[in-house]
Amino acid sequence: MKQKTRCSWAGEQPLMQAYHDEEWGRPQHDDRVLFEFLILEGAQAGLSWSTILNKRENYRRAFHQFDAKKIARYGDKDRERLMGDAGIVRNRLKIGAAIGNAQAYLELCRTEGSLDAWLWRWVDGKPVVNRWTGMGQVPARTELSDRISKDLQKRGFKFVGTTIIYAYLQAVGVVNDHVVGCFCHAESSGRGKK
Question: What's the whole-model pTM score?
Answer without folding.
Answer: 0.94
